[in-house]
Amino acid sequence: MLYKKLQLPQKLLAIALSALLMLALFPATALADNEPYISDVAVISLSGGLLSVNVDYVNLPPGSHNVTVEILNYGDNTSTNIIATGSIPSGGVVTGIDVSTLTSGNDYRIKVTVAGITDSHDSTVFRYYFTCRIVSYDSNGGTGSMPSYLLPEGVTHTVQPNGFIPPAGHYFDSWNTMQNGVGVTYRVSESLTVRSDDIILYAQWLPIPPAVNSVTVSPDTANVHKGGTQQFTAIVDASGSASTDVTWSVDSQLSTIDQNGLLSVGQNETMGTLAVTATSTVDHNKFDTAEVTVITPVTGVTLNKPTLTLAVGVSETLTATVEPGGATNQVVTWLSDNTSVTTVTNGEVTAVAPGRANITVTTEDGGHTATCAVTVMEVVYPFTTNFGTYTGQEEGLTGVIDANISAFTGLEVNGELLHGSNYTTNAGSTIITLHPSYLDTLDNGTYTVRALFMEGYADGSFTVNRQGNAVSVTGVTLDKTTASITVGNTVQLTATVSPSNATSKGVTWASSDTSVATVDANGKVKGVKSGTATITVTTDDGGYTATCKVTATNAADSPQTGDSGNMMLWIITGLSSILISLYLLVWRKQQQLKENA
User: Which of 22, 96, 298, 558 gets the highest tally of CB atoms within 10 A of its CB?
Assistant: First the structure.
């Protein structure tokens, strides 16, 4: 708050003399009770270099009255700056008075003129004076600038936040009236009152204590092949003079990382994911970890078929095998070099039109490729005679196809093109004979055959079953050694050929008495009449046998289990027949004795 300087003796004396002189020259005249006049003028605030002045008045007529505020030099009353104009009544306050051009240490007066009040009634009032002071801020070793503030004495100033750049390794603490900090300390937002001198506030800087705030590893994720390397960098946010050094580690004994952050993944690394960690040497609680995915690289790719023959409209799926089997990235792409002949989607090849095309599969990792040559045929020809089974016969195997021999181009066995020296062809449709010398190189089993023609193909098969490679039969058993059946009923016998992997498991069945029991080719026995017969099974390979004794009975001759009444009747009937026979025998004997007598 600005204050009047009436306490200064010399100024008080001057004011008193001036008052006496005014009274002598202009005798006081009492104001009428209703005459207007200005009763007081006071500075009420200063903000941002702008003054606000309050004007008190008495008996001012209703309506708006213009007011003018001037700042005058105190010593000679010369105008320094016409500051602001306004109107009253409006709370009696005139705001926005700029004092930025005033000089620190000089004394000033406020002159207020209100229109509508005559001079005889003190329309111009010199009622307030003040002295300006400067509050400034000093960087005290920092850099940058901050504004100074010109303030009347007695006004309260709010201490400003720091606007300077701190010296290296320091931070702002407070303001002080002495450069070395031994004066009065002010914190930001505190208030200070402007007195009789300019004020300089010096920034107080304190050293930043050594500390590591954080550690960040870059990159935070990586994919690295076995045997490969990856460079990592540690970004350390440190305060003060704290060291930015880190130690590196990796959680595997088969991979290493040097103290420059270079990771080397072992060729035989077994872990799928590694953790790479950088730890501050100052604060072990400050660290960061990156995740590394270990990639098993692809070394190649193969297809299940190097060649493929299709008819128009037919599809077949090729299978790609990425090597090694444990390679991380198994992704492959498929491509046909002639989509007018074949298309391919995820390995499924579709024949579009007759012609030839190459289907290529490519690994995403490493770009390894494999190719299948595809031939698309228009016509599918029938085998009129298939090749059959090769058991070692000298003539080999012969198949007959209903197609013109002149259009024949080749033969595939199990999807692989067979060399022409392994077979011969003859006219009469197309007759193909597989040579024994070729068949003897094959294991026992069934093989697919595709005969190729210029506009089509024919599919067939053959079986190799050479005895030299066969597993011989060593015996045979039956599930029953005896069996009972009633005439007209059946019982199933089951033969088991040993060993279980015998090449030929064929058997034949026979009955010793077909009038008693018969047996079919599957071992089912049927009762014909009462009696006993032996059923024999014989292996085709080795002639090994097993037998079952079968008893056939008539239904009337066979007691029914559980029918005790019928059983008792049968017993009584039998006993009665015996007794009658004995009676007749005795009676005849007696008759013979009588006749002889």
Answer: 298
State both tokens at 132.
Answer: 């300006």
Residue 174: alpha-carbon gap to chain centroid? 51
Give the position of tokens 């320091």.
170
Helix, strand, or coil here: 382?
coil
332, pLDDT greater than 80: yes
Compute the distance between CA of residue 327 and CA of residue 277 in angstroms, rounded to an integer.
26
Q: How many CA atoms lie within 13 A of 313 on its CB side?
A: 4
CB 240 within 8 Å of CB 226: no
- Pseudo-torsion of CA 548, 554, 560, 561, nearest 10°? -10
Measured over the CA atoms of residue 282, residue 285, residue 286 and residue 292, the dihedral's sign is: positive
Q: How far apart are CA 481 and CA 501, in angstroms?
A: 24
- Beta-bridge mates of residue 361: 334, 370
Answer yes or no: pTM beyond 0.85.
no
Partner residues linked to 200 by β-bridges: 136
Q: Which two tokens stand for residue 411?
A: 């033969």
d(CA 138, CA 398): 112
Q: Is 567 helix (H, G, I), strand (E, B) or coil?
A: helix
Please list the helix, strand and coil fractions of the chain in percent, rounded to the nearest 5, in that order.
10, 50, 40
Give the tens place of pLDDT for each residue, 178-214: 999 999 999 999 999 888 889 999 999 999 888 999 9
DSSP-assigned letter for residue 512: S
Nearest C-alpha neighbor of 329 from the set 366, 303, 361: 366
Q: In whole angstroms, how far apart are CA 363 and each of 278, 302, 318, 326? A: 35, 10, 15, 14
DSSP 8-class letter at 405? G
Number of neighbours of residue 192 by Cβ within 10 angstroms: 18
Rg (CA), the chain: 62
**pLDDT, tens only, 337-380:** 999 999 999 999 999 988 899 999 999 999 999 999 998 877 77
Q: What distance in Å separates the CA atoms of residue 303 and residue 369, rounded to the nearest whole number?
A: 9
Query: What pLDDT score does 406 carry?
Result: 85
Residue 331: CB atoms within 10 Å: 12
pLDDT of residue 375: 87
**Residue ranges of the alpha helices (H) in 257-297?**
none
Helix (H, G, I), strand (E, B) or coil at 318: coil
Q: Which two structure tokens, joined as six digits, stand for 100?
A: 């930025």
